[in-house]
Amino acid sequence: MPFILNIETATKNCSVSIAKNGETIVCKETAEEGYSHAEKLHVFIEEVLAEAGISVQDLIAIAVSQGPGSYTGLRIGVSAAKGLCYALNIPLIAVDTLQTLASQANVSDGKIIPMIDARRMEVYSAVFNANLEVERPIEAEVITEDSFSSYTETIYFVGDCADKCKTVLTKGNFVFLEEIKYPSAAAMSKISYDKYQKSDTVDVAYFEPYYLKDFMAPPSKK
Length: 222
Fold this sequence. Notes:
Elements: E1 3-8, E2 13-20, E3 23-31, H1 37-52, E4 59-65, H2 71-88, E5 92-95, H3 97-102, E6 111-117, E7 122-129, E8 134-142, E9 155-159, H4 162-165, E10 174-176, H5 188-197
Parallel strand pairs: 1-4, 4-5, 6-9, 9-10
Antiparallel strand pairs: 1-2, 2-3, 6-7, 7-8
């Protein structure tokens, strides 16, 4: 059976799903204020396998969120995915985090702009149409009142930036879908299966997450 394990750790949401033929059959996730990916990820992997009634030997591929997002979160997810792929000798599939987030918006018109918080007024964002086709690639940008002002159709914003952006992005055609805050491994299922069918995989040895910006360690509290 074509079972794929999907791992999403790019944001505060630690999320794992099992998909069969591109359909999610079980998903475990939690979004906590403090990142708990290191503690939760392998537990969730064991739980979704058990609930699906399968073993790791039944997997045909592992899909992992490639970023952009949290440096530490991405490293944890990618390290786990690589380890499983090496051990099982199965392919690794990289899924764009913003595409996963955009796919959670069920709209039939306009544009979808997924945004991931990059601190202060900066975000990681991209622009998709209602068919989830990329219309502007990923950028790290500082949000101002003029951001996305060239768009006249309805713009649907998804992601964890609503609180800081909705007071700045106030045009009448801007809609914040605040219930869609984090990307979920459940939404990766169709994307990863489509990639698997096209043999769109990455090199397990050399694949690196897409950080978009260089990692900067926080200042010491001492």
